[in-house]
Design brief:
With 516 residues, this protein is an alpha/beta fold. It has 10 helices and 19 strands. Helix content is 21%, strand content 16%. Strands 1, 2, 3, 4, 5, 6, 11, 12, 13, 14 and 15 form an 11-stranded mixed sheet that branches. It has a 4-stranded antiparallel sheet with strand order 16-17-18-19, with helices on one face. Strands 7-10 form a two-stranded antiparallel sheet. The structure holds 2-acetamido-2-deoxy-6-O-sulfo-beta-D-galactopyranose and calcium ion (CA). The site of 2-acetamido-2-deoxy-6-O-sulfo-beta-D-galactopyranose (NG6) has 18 residues, from loops.
Length: 516
C-alpha cells in the first residue's frame, strides 16, 4: 500500500519539470524529496486568518499560501492546549495516553523522552536535515526544576532528532525568557547567570505582584504576576539573563531570522523545518512596525506579525528557487482565546471579528473552538492551486502521512495513533479520517466524525475558571451534536440517539484500551 502510493508519488514527480532545482545534489538513487516546513501558530483560531473569514486584519501572505494550495475547513489539533497538542503532532501518539503531558512549566524536564520516535527522527531517517525553531513547550533537560541554565542541557531537541534548534523553552509568558540554541542559552551572559524557580522568588527580585510600577509594557489581567522581564510580568521566577533576555517585540523577528538562515543553509538538501511561532500567544507584544496594522490592537497586530513571518518564509523559498518542491503546512496548536491573562484590550477591540469563526468554545474547551484549527497545505510541484477541502483531518496523522511521503519506516510501537492520511493532506482524498479524537483541557475526550461530535461526560465548570470567558463544554452527562445541521453545537441530542452515544463511547473505550 505504502509502496503503491510511493510509486504513484514518484511517477508524479517525474512529470514535473520544475522539480529539477536540486538536481546537483541528487544521487539518482533516492527520489528528489520535497522540503517540508510546518508553520505552526500558537492560539490562532479557526476564524483568525483573512482566508478563513477574519475581519479587521489582513493576512495577504497566508491568503497567498492558501490560493496556491489547499485550504482545509475541517482540520483538528489533537488537544485544546499547547503541550498535549504538540506532543501528539510530534510523536503521533495522543498525549492523554501519557502522564505529565499537560501545559508545561518553563522548567519542565523533557516530556518527549529521548528514546521516543519523533517527526524529526522520521525525517532524519530518510536523509533530511531537521530543525526546530520557535516555541517548544515540551520540556528540556532530564529533570524538572533541576536544569543548570548556565551550561549545556543534558538533553534537548538534539536527542529528539532535530539537527538544529533555536527555541523558547515554554511560552512567552513563562520564564526563562531566553532563547535556547542547540541545548544552550543563546547569547548567554557570563555576568548574569540564570536561575529559574516555579516555587519561590529569588531574594530582591521584583515581581508583577509587588512592583506593578515596573510593568512598563503590559499588565496582567489574571495570574502572570511573578518575575518581570522587559516590563512584563510572567509565570514563574527567574533571576539573571542579562543580554540573553528576549525583548518581546523582537521574538517574531528572531524566530523568523533563524528559520530563514536554516533554509538558506540547506537549500541543496532535503530539509524539515518545524517553525513554531510565538504569535499569537500572550503576552502579545508585536514589533512597532506591525502596530496599528489591524484595528484590533495587540492581538490583531500579532496576527499581522504572524502573516509577516509567513511572507518572509515564502519570499525566501521564492528567492532560493525552492518554492515548488517545498511542502508547506500551516496550522495552529489549539483554538483561540481573547483574554488569556494580560490587559491588552483584545476583547474590547474585536469589532465583530470572531477568532473561532463563530465556533462554540475556544482554547481549553471540548467544543469545536478548542481544537478545530486553520490548516493550509501548499506544494506547488504536486498539488494543484486553489483548492478547498473539507476532509476530516487531524494533526496526529502528519507523522505517518509524511513518512509515507518520504518512504520512512516507523518502528513498531511508535506513533501508534498516527495514520497514513497523505492522500487527504495532498488533496487527493476529500473524505479523510472516519473520526478524530480531541482532548480538552480537563482531559475530556471528544470523537468527531463528519456528521457528529460526541463529548464524553466529564467534571468541571461550564466556563473556564480563571478569566477567559470560554465555554468549556464540560458536562457530567454525554453530549452529542449533529454537525451537519448544528455546526455550532447548540443542541445536545444525546438523549435522542442512545445508540450513537454507545457507539462513540465504545470508540473511546477501545482507543484507551490500546495502551492500558
Ligand atoms: C495558562 C495561562 C495562559 C497560557 C496557558 C497555556 C494563566 C492565568 N493562564 O495557565 O496564559 O499560558 O496556560 O497556553 O496563567 S498554551 O497555549 O501554551 O497551552
Ligand atoms: Ca497554544
Amino acid at each position: 500500500m505504502v509502496i503503491d502510493k510511493w510509486n504513484t508519488f514518484v511517477a508524479g514527480l517525474l512529470t514535473i519539470p520544475s522539480i529539477g532545482v536540486n538536481a546537483q545534489s541528487q544521487n539518482f538513487e533516492r527520489p528528489n524529496l520535497p522540503n517540508v516546513i510546518f508553520i505552526y501558530a500558537d492560539d490562532l483560531g479557526f476564524g483568525d486568518l483573512e482566508c478563513f473569514g477574519a475581519k479587521n486584519v489582513k493576512t495577504p501572505a497566508v491568503n497567498r499560501l492558501a490560493a496556491e494550495g489547499i485550504l482545509f475547513t475541517n482540520a483538528h489539533a489533537a488537544a485544546a492546549t499547547s503541550t498535549p497538542s504538540r506532543y501528539g503532532l510530534l510523536t503521533g501518539r495522543y498525549a492523554w495516553r501519557d502522564k505529565g503531558t499537560d501545559v508545561a512549566a518553563g522548567n519542565a524536564g523533557m516530556i518527549i523522552k529521548p528514546g521516543q520516535f519523533t517527526m524529526a527522527d522520521m525525517f532524519k531517517s530518510v536523509g533530511y536535515v531537521t530543525a526546530g525553531i520557535g516555541k517548544w513547550h515540551l520540556g528540556l533537560g532530564d529533570k524538572t526544576g533541576e536544569q543548570d541554565w548556565n551550561a549545556p542541557l543534558p538533553s534537548a531537541l538534539g536527542d529528539l532528532g532535530f539537527d538544529y534548534s533555536y527555541i523558547m523553552a515554554a511560552t512567552a509568558d513563562r520564564v526563562p525568557c531566553v532563547f535556547i540554541e542547540n541545548g544552550q542559552v543563546a547569547n548567554w551572559d557570563a555576568d548574569a547567570p540564570i536561575y529559574v524557580s516555579y516555587k519561590e522568588n529569588f531574594e530582591g527580585e521584583p515581581t508583577g505582584k509587588n512592583n506593578p510600577e515596573l510593568l512598563y509594557n503590559l499588565h496582567p489581567s489574571h495570574g502572570h504576576d511573578q518575575s518581570i522581564v522587559n516590563g512584563i510580568s510572567r509565570i514563574g521566577y527567574m533571576k539573571g539573563g542579562g543580554k540573553a533576555l528576549w525583548k518581546d517585540e523582537n521574538i517574531a523577528d528572531s524566530i523568523t531570522a533563524h528559520a530563514v538562515k536554516f533554509i538558506e543553509q540547506h537549500v541543496s538538501e532535503p530539509f524539515f523545518l518545524y517553525l513554531a511561532t510565538n504569535d499569537v500567544h500572550v503576552p502579545r507584544f508585536p514589533h512597532p512596525r506591525h502596530r496599528g496594522k489591524s484595528s484590533m490592537g495587540l492581538r490583531g497586530d500579532a496576527i499581522a506579525q504572524f502573516d509577516a513571518t509567513v511572507e518572509t518564509v515564502l519570499n525566501t523559498l521564492d528567492l532560493l528557487g525552492i518554492a515548488d518542491n517545498t511542502l508547506v503546512i500551516l496550522s495552529s496548536d489549539n483554538g483561540p482565546v481573547v483574554d488569556d491573562g494580560y490587559l491588552d484590550d483584545a476583547e474590547e477591540l474585536l469589532g465583530g471579528h470572531s477568532p473561532t469563526g463563530n465556533l462554540r468554545g475556544g482554547k481549553y474547551s471540548a467544543f469545536e473552538g478548542g481544537t478545530r484549527v486553520p490548516m493550509i497545505v501548499r506544494w506547488r510541484a504536486k498539488i494543484p492551486a486553489g483548492q478547498t477541502s473539507d476532509a476530516l483531518v487531524s494533526q496526529i496523522d502528519w507523522l505517518k502521512s509524511l513518512a509515507a511521503l518520504s518512504g520512512a519506516r516507523i518502528p513498531e510501537n511508535a506513533a501508534i495513533d498516527s495514520r497514513d492520511n497523505l492522500a487527504s493532506i495532498i488533496g487527493e482524498d476529500k473524505a479523510g479520517r472516519d473520526y478524530v479524537i480531541e482532548q480538552a483541557s480537563n482531559h475530556a475526550l471528544s470523537v468527531r466524525t463528519k456528521e457528529w461530535k460526541y463529548i464524553e461526560p466529564s467534571e468541571g465548570k461550564p466556563i473556564v475558571a480563571w478569566g477567559p470567558k470560554i465555554e468549556t463544554g464540560y458536562l457530567q452527562s454525554p453530549q452529542l451534536y449533529d454537525m451537519q445541521t448544528d455546526s455550532l453545537e447548540t443542541m445536545n441530542v444525546a438523549d435522542n440517539h442512545p445508540e450513537l452515544v454507545e457507539y462513540f463511547s465504545q470508540i473511546l473505550f477501545s482507543e484507551r484500551n490500546l495502551t492500558k
